[in-house]
Amino acid sequence: MATNQTVLITGASSGIGFELARCFARDGYRLVLSARHDLEATDQKLKSEFSGLQTVLIPADFSTHEGPAHLYDETKRQGLQIDVLVNDAGFGEAGLFTETDLQKEIGIVHVNVMSLMYLTKVFLHDMVARNSGKIMQLGSVVSFLPNPRQAVYAATKAFVLSLSEALQQELKEQKSEVTITILCPPATETNFFHVAGAENTKVGQSDKADPKDVAEAGYKGLLSGEARVLPTFGAKMNFASSVLFPDSMLAVLMGSQMQEEKK
C-alpha cells in the first residue's frame, strides 16, 4: 500500500516501537523516528529491509521537560506534517515502592505520562485543526490492573488509558475525523524486563507475546480506527479479569507474578 503520509514514532529503536516502524515502512509511510539511543542503527536496519524508505531521525530524551518540546519544535522546523503519532516510548521499574529508586521513577513518570501528554496535546491540536490524523497510545494490560512491585509503571499506564478514553469522547463530541487507539499488550518479549530489573520474576521468566504480533494487531486497529486493541488472548483474559474480579484480588494475583523465582 503506497502512501504519502508521515508517521512519528517515539521509542522506535527497539521492541514494539521498532516492529510498528516496520509495519508503517512496509506500507510506504515516511518515518520520523525518535528515541534517546540507537536511532542510526535502527535506521540502517529498516532501510536494509525496505528499499526507498524515507526517514527523519530526531533524537530526544523524554525523561526531561525539554525532550518532547524539542521533538515537536523540530518537526515544525523541518516542515513535517505528522499524520500519525505513535506514543510508544516508555519503561518501568520493579520492586517494592519503599525500596525502588525515586529518581528512576520520576523519569518513568516523565516518559510515560508527561511526554506522552505533551506530544498528544500539541499534535492532536494540529490534527483537529485539519480534521485528519491518528494517534496510537501504548497502554498495557496493567492499565486495568493494580500491579504491586511495579506500582509506578502500572499507575502511568492507567493514566494513559484514562486520558485517551476521555479524549476519544471529546473527539466524538467534536465530530472529528481524528481517532485515538489504545494498544494494551500483555508481557511482551522486549528489553522491558531487563530495564525494569524484573528478568528473574515469574512474569519475567514466563512465555511472553511476540512484539511482531503485538505491533501487527495494533497497526491494524489503528488504521481501522479502533478505540482499544487487546492484541492477544492473554491480553483479553487480563481485561476480562479486571471486569470480573475486585481490585483487591487482582492486586494479590498481579503481585504474585512479580515475585522473584526461587533458584
UniProtKB/TrEMBL annotation:
GO cellular component, as recorded? membrane
Gene3D superfamilies recorded for this chain?
NAD(P)-binding Rossmann-like Domain
The family database entries (InterPro entries) matched by this protein are listed as: NAD(P)-bd_dom_sf, Sc_DH/Rdtase_CS, SDR_fam
Question: What are the recorded GO MF terms, alphabetically?
Answer: oxidoreductase activity
- Keyword set for this entry? Oxidoreductase
Record PANTHER family: DEHYDROGENASE/REDUCTASE SDR FAMILY MEMBER 7B, SHORT-CHAIN DEHYDROGENASE-RELATED
Question: Belongs to which family?
Answer: Belongs to the short-chain dehydrogenases/reductases (SDR) family.
Q: What is this protein called?
A: Short-chain dehydrogenase
Source organism: Hymenobacter psychrotolerans DSM 18569
What broad taxonomic lineage does this protein's source fall under? Bacteria, Pseudomonadati, Bacteroidota, Cytophagia, Cytophagales
